[in-house]
From TrEMBL:
Coiled-coil residue spans: none
Native species: Papaver somniferum
Domain of life of the source: Eukaryota
Source taxonomy: Eukaryota, Viridiplantae, Streptophyta, Embryophyta, Tracheophyta
Catalytic activity from the UniProt record: L-threonyl-[protein] + ATP = O-phospho-L-threonyl-[protein] + ADP + H(+); L-seryl-[protein] + ATP = O-phospho-L-seryl-[protein] + ADP + H(+)
EC number: 2.7.11.17
Domain Protein kinase, first and last residues per copy: 13-304
GO molecular function: ATP binding; calcium ion binding; calcium/calmodulin-dependent protein kinase activity; calmodulin binding
First-to-last residue of the parent protein present: 1 to 386 of 522
Binding of ATP, residues: 46
Record protein name field: calcium/calmodulin-dependent protein kinase
GO BP terms: nodulation
Keywords per UniProt: ATP-binding, Calcium, Calmodulin-binding, Kinase, Metal-binding, Nodulation, Nucleotide-binding, Phosphoprotein, Repeat, Serine/threonine-protein kinase, Transferase
């Protein structure tokens, strides 16, 4: 990757349809104007907008060089959160380019452009959809399939952790399939909240669900590679049951049970799950981060290699629960994206509390919609007292 300060994105790419939207970004399909080997390549262009009044400026140094510490990270506290996220994502992506890419399970960054619309990350296109979307669309699903997913995420994490990169926001929606083909690789993406151990001051994860957040992250202890392993444990638990391990109606209660590592395999659907899978989950969901296995270690685990994973079809109830879980998650993600992108989101405490609770009841969804309409009507005047 080279610096593209003087060239324009539009000189090299045709920008097409919107693929998705995040809190501070819009991702569009792009088509290169200059064919390589006779073909025009398809990419994803993630445009991160600046909202802060005094943007910190793009880092000009190559990630990994010592000069990065002179970028003034303490300044992040004075600039908007969106600017801090933006700078962080670029730093981490550059580190990935230098120390991890190409890797089949980590998204690749081709280029970076900057103009008055914001910063454009030209990324490898992943057109195969999100992890849970594909699983719920399958008519057959068993432990071997789940093990293949865990193996790919662990491969990606092992490479990232080796480069001292901690993802910090590992969740199913940040895992996309590269293509729709059956053997498509699964890619880890969205490094907006990630940290590079030696030079970034991690941004506190203010947004979204705490379902995947480790106890040490919640208690504001040191966040390390082991925190990603906890998140992987949560993903695995959901893959095999259709519901999250830490389940509560209030965010405060959920925090308490995460901190205590209080989960169980009591539901009847766990009876048919192999003991090897349960043992792996228990090791990943160990409260003490030092006692959790590393990504490299779990790649040798007999369940992850597929040796002890059951081939029997998963209980239909698990797949149906996964369906509902996925639908609720998508609804909440859309709500968060629209709230986060508004300038007043940090002041809408009530809404944040509602969104933090994973299991939205119909009544809560109604409340959420009413609150949405209210804050939309009030615009920037919404306050925490609502
Ligand atoms: P969030 O606020 O959830 O952290 P974000 O602003 O970091 O989001 P992303 O999650 O990276 O944005 O991207 C938003 C959406 O765009 C994704 O959910 C996905 O649907 C789509 N998307 C992102 N990257 C790609 C890609 N490389 N290929 C295809 N689609 C992508």
């Amino acid at each position: 990757m080279t610096e593209k300060e003087s060239r324009k994105l539009s000189d090299e790419y045709e920008v097409a349809d919107v693929l998705g939207k995040g809190g501070f970004s819009v991702v569009r399909r792009g088509l290169s104007k200059c064919p390589s080997a006779g073909e025009r390549s398809h990419v994803a262009i993630k445009t991160l907008q600046r909202f802060g009044s005094t943007p910190p400026g793009l880092p000009r140094n190559r990630a990994g060089e010592k000069g990065l510490t002179s970028l003034g990270f303490p300044m992040w506290k004075q600039v908007s959160i969106s600017d801090a996220l933006l700078t962080n994502e670029i730093l981490v992506m550059r580190k990935i380019v230098e120390d991890v890419s190409p890797h089949p399970n980590v998204i690749h960054l081709h280029d970076v452009y900057e103009d008055s619309n914001g910063v454009h990350l030209v990324l490898e296109l992943c057109s195969g959809g999100e992890l849970f979307d594909r699983i719920v669309a399958q008519d057959k699903y068993n432990e071997v399939d789940a093990a293949a997913v865990v193996r790919q995420i662990a491969e990606g994490l092992a490479a990232l952790h080796k480069a001292n990169i901690v993802h910090r926001d590992l969740k199913p929606e940040n895992c996309l399939f590269q293509s729709t083909s059956e053997d498509s690789p699964l890619k880890i993406m969205d490094f907006g909240l990630s940290s590079v151990e030696e030079f970034t001051d991690p941004i506190v994860g203010l947004f979204g669900s705490i379902d995947y957040v480790s106890p040490e992250a919640l208690s504001q202890g040191k966040i390390s590679a082991a925190s990603d392993m906890w998140s992987l444990g949560v993903i695995l638990y959901i893959l095999l049951s259709g519901y999250p391990p830490f389940h509560a109606t209030s965010n405060r209660h959920k925090q308490q049970i995460i901190l205590a590592g209080d989960f169980s395999f009591d539901d009847h659907s766990w009876k048919t799950i192999s003991s090897s899978a349960k043992q792996l989950i228990s090791s990943l969901l160990t409260v003490d981060p030092h006692r959790r296995p590393t990504a490299q270690q779990i790649l040798q685990h007999p369940w992850v290699t597929g040796d002890s994973a059951k081939q029997d079809l998963m209980d239909a109830e698990v797949v149906s629960r996964l369906h509902s879980f996925n639908a609720r998650r998508k609804f909440r993600a859309a709500a968060i994206a629209s709230v986060v992108s508004s300038t007043f989101f940090l002041r809408t405490k009530k809404l944040k509390n509602l969104l933090g609770s994973h299991d939205l009841t119909p009544e809560e969804i109604g409340k959420l919609m009413t609150h949405f309409k209210k804050i939309c009507a009030k615009g920037d005047n919404a306050t925490t007292s609502e």
